[in-house]
Amino acid sequence: MVPVSMPSALTFELLGKCSVTKARAATLHLPHGPVPLPIFMPVATQASLKGLTPDQLEDAGCRLCLNNTYHLGLKPGQATLDAIGGAHKFQSWPHNILTDSGGFQMVSLLKLAKVTEEGVKFLSPHDGTPMLLTPEHSISLQNSIGSDIIMQLDDVIATTSPDLARMREAMERSVRWLDRCIKAHKYPERQNLFCIIQGGLDLDLRKECTIEMVARDTPGIAIGGLSGGEAKDAYCTVVDTCTELLPEKKPRYVMGVGYPEDLVVSVALGADMFDCVWPTRTARFGNAITARGVLNIRNAGYSTEFTPIEEGCQCVCCRSQEDGGLGITRAYIYHVASKETAGAHLLTIHNVHYQLNLMKRVREAIIEDRYPAFLKEFFSKLYDDKSKYPGWAVNALKGVGVDLLSD
Amino acid sequence: MTNDASPPNLTQLPPEMLEFALLKTTGALAPRLGRLTLPGRKTILTPGFLGNTSRGAVPHISQDNFRNASINGVYVALEDYIEKHPETTPPVFQIDAPDSLRRFIALPTDTLLVLGARRQPPIPSPVANTNSEIGLLTSYGFRSISSEYYAAAVRKLQPDIVVGLADIPFGQETVGLKRKDKMSDRTEVWTRDIIAKRNGIEKGEPRYSIFAPILPIDQDLQSWYLEHLLDDMVDDISGVAIYDAYLLDDLPEALYHLPRLSLHIPAGPHELLRQISLGMDLFTIPFISNATDAGIALDFKFPAPQKLDSATSSSRQSLGVDMWLASHAESATPLTSGCTCYACTKHHTAYIQHLLSAKEMLGWVLIQLHNHTILDSFFSGVRASIENGTFEQDVAAFEAFYEPSLPEKTGQGPRVRGYQHSGSEHKHMAKKNPKAFRNFEKEGVLQAMHGQQPNAKPEMRDVIDDEALVGLVGLENVEQGEEAEKLKIEDAKS
Ligand SMILES: [Zn+2]
Ligand SMILES: [Zn+2]
């Protein structure tokens, strides 16, 4: 296969690099406006983010969110998307959208999904009829969705699978499927196709895959198949290995990652983009993300805490009424958590803001070349004692020149 | 009956007091126009309505979205805040700041805040009222509070208006004569109580206005109470809260100048119009949120539009659109053409239909915003019609144009929490939440229907609560249920 050079609908503007770690700060110019990198992308699975209006999501600072192709393909379906004119119009979202290929959802949601060279076979969740998702169909769906970043269909298997032969097959198939996706892609001038590096936890497979994928010259590159329950050390090694081989001037997206400590470490390992349902999903259980860890506001102790969800947070919930915010307190969140949908909406706003603001601070620290100090401060806030720092984070950061345990 | 109904002493009242100006009346049992003003709050033109809150929020409307909701005043129930009384002091009383309730629920400073003891509609409490206490239903179960406690709570919470306690045995099909006597006696005592407590507040400290309850019993059965209300309480009250609009006939003329808050739950717009035609001023309208939860986008105007062609004249227009119907799936139009609400100006029908069928919470948010705007426009139309003197004809035209009741719901709403059920719905709860019923049965905790029983295993509570918020994931069929369960596992990863 001779790699075809493909057009790109994005510009990657590198603004700064950490002089110690592999962290980078950039602005990614996408069809629906510029977005800052590194970035966390909230997941609006079914074209809606957990009860928030697009305006609320915008107010929280989001300019790039995810939709899931699998879900939109089922509902509202390709015909409706075509009729309405794509997902931006469908959900009245003027900013950028990234869609996955649908393959991962299928394999993880449907027990009867079966992967062949042709595509992913599965039974329709509506009526049980056999269906097939091919690379061509996935791209066609994403073309109808009109997302600014689209993902190739890949052959995803659990990183923890011991079957190396199957792992190699999946990796090689993902490369072949990328070629089919590139060929099927109708709008490369307005939608950016990202390849997805596979290969499980086997570093040789990952390297081989990275070289093959990079040769196809897609506008951006994703590292896939992680966040499936593998050890964090192994995760870090894979990310580190892949970013080592990636071109500097392209965005790097690690799929399915979103815990704050995972984000800051992955950035140090050279990754730029992340998505995860956790911050918004956990809000529905009354969990608030703060610099000092996750608080479950449904604990009765919070019922009389008349302080913001997080002191100093500038989200519309936490900001004081004097400051133009709502002045929502932990006590009020306790009062409505899991009793009124509005309670979940408020916490979702806070959590999305937390994640976006964390990445904003990360970016500023990189631009000002003080990311190592930022990392130290981040972990010292999150854990009250160095002995509690997670070993994988300490090791991974040591590998890129930051010793969290030193003073 | 006189057109100049202003009480003589109104001009001497301190500036922070509530004012009600009757702008137009045409006699007893007739629609009227009024203006309710309180310095610092948005003016409420009557007939008009209050947002009906649940735990401080209009259901589905987070506080930042509230500004998109065209609501100038809200009704708040004390029973939403005192679930652990008397074991622990309710948190809201521990706020050490002025305007504690308003701050706590992040209500804008210019929104009128009306506080009552019970939610609208109140769920019958098996704890009977006594001479000194009234039974409530909180999210932790049944409680009772004394009149004294109520007055203290009101003083602490500083609403603009408080509805006095009324002794009404909700849910009781027939009430004996003796019991009715008691209702009148107790309500009188409690009304005197709250007036005395309010008048005891020192000068310079924030005061609240009192709406005295008018009981849903015949005039002769509450005649003592009404007489005393006129004799020595009328100057201390700023309005009346009426539990049975059809007894407005019995309202003493000396109370005509006061604003009338209806606590008579209207089933739909037709009944609202009937109450308005009897001279009711202000409403809480539970059917708005009920329609929203059912996925029904209200779709009516007052006055009703002109009928366009005679071909359709035989069929009446529906009062609402069932947004669950798949026929809306490709409709790029607003919910109601010309509607100025947030949902209709930002989104289209297809998206809202998608949100409902995908059980995304945003669907209910958008329909709720729309439904409140529909009512807001409805009341504007009503006021203009009264102003023009065409109300009677307009009502007749409305009745001829629209179906008599709201459409039946077809799809599932968000899971109903126990404390949100109306009394009659209570009996049918098992039918309403079939899956929950099954779960609870399995767990042997039928009380779990209240959603937050104190002794439940925390992990069980999580399950219920999450479902409550997601809506009704998995209720339609087994496949989706399985899918949802797997989603959780997948979601749980980092
Ligand atoms: Zn916040
Ligand atoms: Zn509307």
Automatic annotation (TrEMBL), chain A:
Principal EC category: transferase
Subcellular location(s) of the protein: Cytoplasm
UniProt GO BP: tRNA modification
A Pfam family the protein falls into: TGT
Family annotation (PANTHER family): QUEUINE TRNA-RIBOSYLTRANSFERASE CATALYTIC SUBUNIT 1
tRNA-binding found in the keyword field: no
A GO CC annotation given for this chain: cytosol
Predominant cellular place of this UniProt entry's protein: cytoplasm
NCBIfam families xref list: Q_tRNA_tgt, tgt_general
Organism: Melanomma pulvis-pyrius CBS 109.77
Cofactor(s) it depends on: Zn(2+)
Keywords: Cytoplasm, Glycosyltransferase, Metal-binding, Transferase, tRNA processing, Zinc
Catalyses which reaction(s): guanosine(34) in tRNA + queuine = queuosine(34) in tRNA + guanine
Lineage of the species this protein comes from: Eukaryota, Fungi, Dikarya, Ascomycota, Pezizomycotina
Name by which UniProt lists this protein: Queuine tRNA-ribosyltransferase catalytic subunit 1
From TrEMBL, chain B:
Positions of region (Disordered): 409-431
GO cellular-component term (any): cytoplasm
Keyword list, A-Z: Cytoplasm, Metal-binding, tRNA processing, Zinc
Compartments where located: Cytoplasm
Cofactor note: Binds 1 zinc ion per subunit.
InterPro entries per UniProt: QTRTD1, Queuine_tRNA-ribosyltrfase, TGT-like_sf, tRNA_ribo_trans-like
Record has Membrane as a keyword: no
Assembly description: Heterodimer of a catalytic subunit and an accessory subunit.
Domain tRNA-guanine(15) transglycosylase-like intervals: 31-402
Protein name: Queuine tRNA-ribosyltransferase accessory subunit 2
UniProt keyword annotation of tRNA processing present: yes
A Pfam family hit: TGT
Cofactor requirements of the protein: Zn(2+)
GO biological process: tRNA modification
Record SUPFAM superfamilies: tRNA-guanine transglycosylase
Main function: Non-catalytic subunit of the queuine tRNA-ribosyltransferase (TGT) that catalyzes the base-exchange of a guanine (G) residue with queuine (Q) at position 34 (anticodon wobble position) in tRNAs with GU(N) anticodons (tRNA-Asp, -Asn, -His and -Tyr), resulting in the hypermodified nucleoside queuosine (7-(((4,5-cis-dihydroxy-2-cyclopenten-1-yl)amino)methyl)-7-deazaguanosine).
GO molecular function: metal ion binding; tRNA-guanosine(34) queuine transglycosylase activity
